[in-house]
């Protein structure tokens, strides 16, 4: 993988937010869940599609904090406009496990 400069890294706006709503996304080509996440006063609530169905059910996600890239352009995914990228890691079976803080953090806090 190519190296990037620290200045390049600073261009990626990575924030924490709290899931306010989550729904199945049966229209997606690959199994996914629609997420609505509160990123605080500056960014407010945004929505996204996340391919996390192997480890999570929509009802379990509400109230959970997630980490996301919030400055990518919006992307149309079927009938749904995705406004951020939820971050996760692939487990040994190539299923996504969410990245999240281990303590409550104010919504909108930027990765330090």
Folded structure, characterized:
It is built from three helices and nine strands; from the N terminus they run αββαβαββββββ. It has 112 residues and is mainly beta. The chain has a single domain, classed as OB fold (Dihydrolipoamide Acetyltransferase, E2P). The strands form three sheets. It has a five-stranded antiparallel beta sheet. Strands 5-6 form a two-stranded antiparallel ribbon. A hairpin with a 5-residue loop joins strand 8 and strand 9.
Task: Give the arrangement of secondary structure elements.
Layout: H1 6-10, E1 14-24, E2 33-38, H2 40-43, E3 45-50, H3 58-61, E4 65-69, E5 75-77, E6 80-82, E7 85-86, E8 88-90, E9 96-98
Antiparallel strand pairs: 1-2, 1-4, 2-3, 4-7, 5-6, 8-9
Q: What is the domain tally?
A: 1
Strand tally: 9
What number is the mean pLDDT? 97
Helicity range: 10-25%
Gap between N and C termini: 23 Å
**Continuous helix count:** 3
CATH class: Mainly Beta
Structural class: mainly beta
The succession of helices and strands, N to C, reads HEEHEHEEEEEE
Strand order across the biggest sheet? 3-2-1-4-7
Please give the CATH architecture: Beta Barrel
Based on the model shown, name its key terms.
112 residues; mainly beta; OB fold (Dihydrolipoamide Acetyltransferase, E2P); five-stranded antiparallel beta sheet; two-stranded antiparallel sheet; 3 helices; 38% strand
